[in-house]
Amino acid sequence: MVKLDKYIRDIPDFPKKGIIFKDITPLLQDSKVFKTAVNTMTKVLEGKKVDVILGIESRGFIFGSALAYKLNCGFVPVRKPGKLPYKTYKAEYSLEYGKDILEVHRDAVRQDADVLIVDDLLATGGTAKAVVNLAKKLRAKIQGVLFLIELSFLNGRKKLKGIPVYSLIKY
Ligand code: AMP
Question: Which domain holds residue 94?
Fold first, then answer.
């Protein structure tokens, strides 16, 4: 069995001092390891009904779209401001390093659709919480939030109370 955490590289002081950036590129560039990560995500989700994956820009697109292909469901990009061409809903959030806005197309998901939110990493939970708010504006049913990595010591789960949170690698 591939040990996924061996393929996550720590980059100290990126993108700013004091942050230890979890670099997932070693995992992505190895076909066997990338495949194992996506297959393990599928296993974690066994028995869940998912109509659409909401992938968070930008690394959430990588896992979200691979997973959507595997689960035979749709993929919706949740993007940084000004990138989506049609009418959007917006949500502001605080990051481990700064503030930002995320947007989703207003017609991205039908009402009551079962959605899964996907990103590479859970840190403080601000980003995922913003997407939860977007999913609520879309009137979707949130089946869960899935991450490759969880920085447990930042307690991001606390911000996502009442929503199932899945992660493959915990620090
Ligand atoms: P947060 O909103 O604090 O949970 O931050 C999560 C988002 O920021 C995700 O989209 C991550 O890709 C990115 N992020 C935050 N902290 C890190 C980190 N230490 N290493 C890599 N990415 C991070």
Answer: 48-170
**Mean pLDDT over residues 141-156, rounded?**
98
Q: Is 88 in the pocket of ligand 1 (CB under 6 A)?
A: no
CATH number where 53 lies? 3.40.50.2020
Q: What would the two tokens of residue 90 be?
A: 């917006």
Q: Does residue 160 lie within any of the structural domains?
A: yes
- Domain for residue 134, yes or no? yes
Among 27, 127, 131, 133, the mutation site with the greatest number of ligand 1 atoms within 8 A of its Cβ is: 127
Is 120 within the bounds of a domain? Answer: yes
Ligand 1 atom nearest the C-alpha of 126 is 2
140/133 Cα distance (integer angstroms):
10
Each residue of 11-36: pLDDT tens digit?
Answer: 999 988 999 999 999 999 999 999 99
> Which residue has the least CA distance to atom 16 on ligand 1?
123
Q: Domain total for the chain?
A: 1
What digits encode the pLDDT tens for the residues 115-142? 999 999 999 999 999 999 999 999 999 9
Instruction: For residue 110, indicate whether it is catalytic.
Output: no
Question: Could you give the CA distance from residue 51 to residue 166 in angstroms, rounded to a whole number?
Answer: 17
